[in-house]
């Protein structure tokens, strides 16, 4: 059942703006650093205040932080939600490609899906179902042979799903394959480093891969060989032309991402 959204694009009421500070301060279990991070996230993406109560930070990596939050349902029940906040320096095309992976391949066969996505300026928050899971290191020594076999079977099931769409995850590890031991549920997460095969069905991965190759070429080949041992620095205009072409392709690719403007920010939704 979907959360009741008071329109993420609606303007905040003064009381709501004050509430999130109070909610953060009331949790004695949170460290000062986590409380500050949650407050910063509310301030960076203020439309979250109308929808979610952020409870704690449950993960942090090089490119993102993940938070546990709750959303109010029509029945009055609070549904647990995972909020992935991508760092502002993440390339827009990479963010859009990750969203497209989740939207196209996610939600089936142990691949994490996506519910919503919020954007305000250069801050993006991906909203996903929350799967309570164990730390793999904590249970590693207690796993039976049967459990390991089931774990691997379900991992391969998820990989078969994404490979069907031409997605290469490139970061498969225990922390990115969530496992709920009690419920026997699994979820492959984090497509931030994903690349596409030559026949990938994820259009934005094609563009992201070509741009990565171009940047790599410019970084690893700063000189142009003329023969007979003579080389000169590549003209600045070559780099400018390459950047211009990349920007044109990025603009074309990001046209697949619909931005719904509102007073409180923007909500992203993919369409094909």
TrEMBL record:
EC number of this enzyme: 2.7.11.1
Name recorded for this polypeptide: Cell division cycle 7-related protein kinase
GO CC, one annotated term: nucleus
Xref: Gene3D superfamilies: Phosphorylase Kinase, domain 1, Transferase(Phosphotransferase) domain 1
Cofactor: Mg(2+)
Residue spans of biased composition, Basic and acidic residues class: 8-22
InterPro entries: Kinase-like_dom_sf, Prot_kinase_dom, Protein_kinase_ATP_BS, Ser/Thr_kinase_AS
Ranges for region Disordered: 1-24
GO biological processes: cell division; mitotic DNA damage checkpoint signaling
Quaternary state and interactors: Forms a complex with either DBF4/DBF4A or DBF4B, leading to the activation of the kinase activity. Interacts with CLASPIN (via the acidic patch); the interaction is required for phosphorylation of MCM proteins and CLASPIN.
Enzyme superclass (EC): transferase
Organism the protein comes from: Hirundo rustica rustica
GO MF annotation terms: ATP binding; metal ion binding; protein serine/threonine kinase activity
Homology family: Belongs to the protein kinase superfamily.
Binding positions for ATP per the UniProt entry: 84
Catalytic reaction annotation: L-threonyl-[protein] + ATP = O-phospho-L-threonyl-[protein] + ADP + H(+); L-seryl-[protein] + ATP = O-phospho-L-seryl-[protein] + ADP + H(+)
Subcellular location: Nucleus
Cited function: Kinase involved in initiation of DNA replication. Phosphorylates critical substrates that regulate the G1/S phase transition and initiation of DNA replication, such as MCM proteins and CLASPIN.
């Amino acid at each position: 059942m979907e959360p009741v959204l008071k329109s993420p694009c609606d303007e905040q009421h003064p009381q709501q703006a004050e509430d999130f500070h109070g909610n953060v301060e009331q949790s004695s279990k949170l460290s000062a650093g986590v409380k500050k991070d949650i407050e910063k996230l509310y301030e960076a993406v203020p439309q979250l205040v109308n929808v979610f109560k952020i409870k704690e930070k449950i993960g942090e990596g090089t490119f993102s932080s993940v938070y546990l939050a709750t959303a109010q349902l029509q029945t009055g029940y609070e549904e647990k939600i995972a909020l992935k906040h991508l760092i502002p320096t993440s390339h827009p095309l990479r963010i859009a490609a990750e969203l497209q992976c989740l939207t196209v391949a996610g939600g089936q066969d142990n691949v994490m899906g996506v519910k919503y996505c919020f954007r305000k300026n250069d801050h993006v928050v991906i909203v996903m179902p929350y799967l309570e899971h164990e730390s793999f290191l904590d249970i590693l020594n207690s796993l039976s042979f049967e459990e390991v076999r089931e774990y691997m079977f379900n991992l391969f099931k998820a990989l078969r799903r994404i490979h069907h769409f031409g997605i290469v995850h490139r970061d498969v590890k225990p922390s990115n394959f969530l496992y709920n031991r009690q419920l026997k549920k699994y979820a492959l997460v984090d497509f931030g480093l994903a690349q596409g095969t030559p026949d990938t069905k994820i259009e934005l991965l094609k563009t992201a891969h070509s741009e990565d190759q171009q940047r790599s070429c410019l970084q690893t080949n700063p000189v142009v060989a003329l023969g007979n041992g003579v080389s000169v620095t590549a003209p600045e205009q070559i780099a400018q032309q390459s950047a211009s072409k990349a920007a044109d392709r990025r603009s074309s690719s990001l046209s697949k991402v619909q931005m719904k403007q509102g007073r409180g920010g923007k909500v992203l939704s993919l369409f094909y």
